[in-house]
Design brief:
Length: 562
């Protein structure tokens, strides 16, 4: 599908798209409106004490970040959740998220709950459970060892400070010594003190490494969870907008899919998709009419619909070229496509154009023309078919035609109905009988328009199509499917190579500006001259309209003396 087809599909199914969008938005709004307010409690832990070190190394920072990710994974484990529930006496935990903050040694725990106090308690207890699983958690034996190490550190610190004082005093004494003996003794004393100081400092560093001071794998809470006072934004408006967008997209996709799967013929593009036959001027749907199948050329000769039939006549004459429209068959693929109405109005348009026209109703099983023209149907073409089967020739049939052809009120128009309906014998309309009847009626008329049965219903149309000069196929826009139209055209092509084209019936006039232009063209515009008299604008007059008014009684019907 191209862009224009997609846009047309969206316009066609606009009600579905709008309804789905509104339904999705309304459902989402009702859902989020009934949800209780939720609160977030946040706890932040820090891994290690690297920031207390004025010169931390890159290794310490990278190791701290890796450990933070590990502890975040531990916080999401089932064992941590179970012990948190047990510690707080809860049957279930609210939803929470534990994650390491990017490029840092921080761990964030966020708890979401409808109860602010419960959210705070769970956040703090989760942090406590993590600390319990780290070396930071105090154990009894470790506490005793920590106290002993701290005591030793204090003693070493005092010895270090005392040794440093002695070393300073020895250096001052060395500076004031004069004899070689005093200088030698002072130097030996300084060496001994320096060695002692290094030993004490080494012991101090070794003991300090066994304490938590400066350790990387330790956890501490730097921001405990506080009691949340306001509920977090639920994003209800964004949820509604997202739901509406999803509904719109899904409905649009459904509309495009339905349109792609729909093979209904709606216009010229669909006809050209299944056949290379010319598309003749279409007939719009008759507006504001209780009976859409009516003689609009007779009843409303100045209407845009009537003008389309005259335009169709002109197009048929052009398509026929050098071959005159002596015998013309009007048929359709399926029933109820308006072929009988088009055949009747086309015959009227030809007769009003000065032709002597015979309209033949050859739809033997469902005759229509006698109803359209409101005439009896006692005798007709069925009375001609029986003699042809018995071997009657054109002369005998022609004599019978003079009795059966009925002149109508419209000048130059005659009608041959089907005759009284009866059980139509199989094969009563065959190639021979059709040829004999056509040879009998054609010399008397300028044009013979034949209304036949549908192609896909019975075989009468294909029999007649092989005997006439030209064929027109009627397709009801908006109801016939492309496969039915294609099958009807294939059957018609097998019988008749002289198909003038396809006429689309019941077109939407709002989508064809020609009808609106013509309707405006027929309405004269009044102008007031300088003398105050209204005169018709010569640019708005219609010569065709004036000609009709001169020939008719002013209402579109021919006068008796015409």
């Amino acid at each position: 599908m191209n862009v224009n087809q997609i846009f047309a599909a969206l316009l066609k199914w606009w009600w579905l798209i709008l309804g789905a969008t509104i339904l999705a938005a309304a459902s989402s709004y009702m859902a989020v409106s009934n949800q209780p307010a939720v609160y977030n409690a946040r706890t932040v832990l820090m891994l290690g004490r690297t920031f207390e070190n004025p010169n931390p190394s890159g290794t310490e920072l990278n190791l701290g970040q890796q450990l933070a990710a590990t502890y975040a994974d531990i916080a999401n484990m089932r064992v941590v959740r179970e012990q948190t529930k047990e510690a707080l006496g809860l049957d279930s935990l609210p939803g929470y998220r534990a994650r390491p903050l990017p490029n840092s040694q921080l761990i964030e725990i966020v708890v979401t709950d409808t109860s602010p106090r419960r959210a705070q308690a769970v956040a703090n207890e989760l942090a406590n459970q993590l600390i319990q699983r780290s070396p930071t958690a105090p154990q009894p034996e470790e506490q005793e060892r920590e106290a002993f190490v701290n005591q030793q550190l204090s003693s070493l610190q005092e010895n270090i400070e005392e040794t440093e004082d002695q070393l300073s005093a020895a250096r001052l004494a060395l500076e004031s010594a004069f004899s070689a003996r005093e200088i030698e003794r002072g130097e030996r004393e300084i060496v001994v003190l320096e060695e002692k100081l290094r030993t004490l400092q080494g012991n101090y560093a070794a003991l300090l490494a066994n304490t938590s001071s400066g350790a990387i794998n330790t956890l501490s809470v730097i921001e405990p969870a506080t009691l949340p006072e306001r509920p977090v934004s639920s994003g209800s408006m964004m949820t509604v907008i997202a739901a509406a967008a999803i509904g719109f997209v899904m409905a649009s996709g459904t509309a495009i899919l339905l349109d792609a799967l729909d093979d209904t013929v709606r216009g010229t593009a669909e006809v050209r998709a299944v056949t290379d036959l010319p598309v003749l001027p279409g007939i719009p749907e008759i507006p504001d009419a209780e009976d859409p199948d009516r003689l609009v050329v007779r009843d409303e000769p100045l209407s845009p619909v009537a003008e389309t039939f005259r335009g169709l006549h002109a197009a048929l004459q052009t398509a026929a070229g050098e071959n005159e429209l002596h015998t013309l068959l009007v048929t359709s693929s399926r029933p109820h496509e308006g072929k009988s109405m088009i055949a009747a109005n086309l015959a009227l348009a030809m007769a009003q154009g000065g032709y002597r026209v015979l309209l033949v109703d050859a739809d033997l099983r469902r005759p229509t023309q006698h109803k359209l023209f409101d005439v009896p149907n006692a005798d007709g073409i069925l009375d001609l078919l029986e003699p042809t089967l018995s071997g009657a020739g054109p002369e005998e049939v022609q004599a019978r035609v003079q009795e059966l052809v009925r002149p109508l009120a419209e000048e130059g128009l005659f009608l041959l109905t089907t005759g009284a309906w009866q059980e139509v014998r199989s094969g009563i309309l065959n190639f021979r009988s059709a040829r004999v009847i056509l040879d009998a009626v054609t010399p008397e008329f300028d044009c013979v328009v034949i209304d036949s049965s549908p192609l896909l219903a019975v075989s009468d149309a294909t029999v007649l199509a092989a005997q006439v000069d030209h064929v027109v196929l009627v397709a009801a826009a908006g109801s016939i499917r492309q496969r039915d139209l294609s099958e009807g055209i294939q059957r018609l092509k097998q019988a008749a190579p002289n198909i003038l084209g396809v006429v689309l019936n019941r077109l939407d006039s709002s989508k064809h500006s020609y009808y609106n232009y013509y309707a405006n063209y027929l309405v004269p515009e009044e102008e007031e001259g300088s003398d105050g008299v209204n005169r018709t604008n010569i640019f708005a007059t219609n010569p065709l309209r004036d000609w009709w008014l001169r020939r008719s009684d002013g209402k579109g019907a021919f006068s008796e003396n015409q």
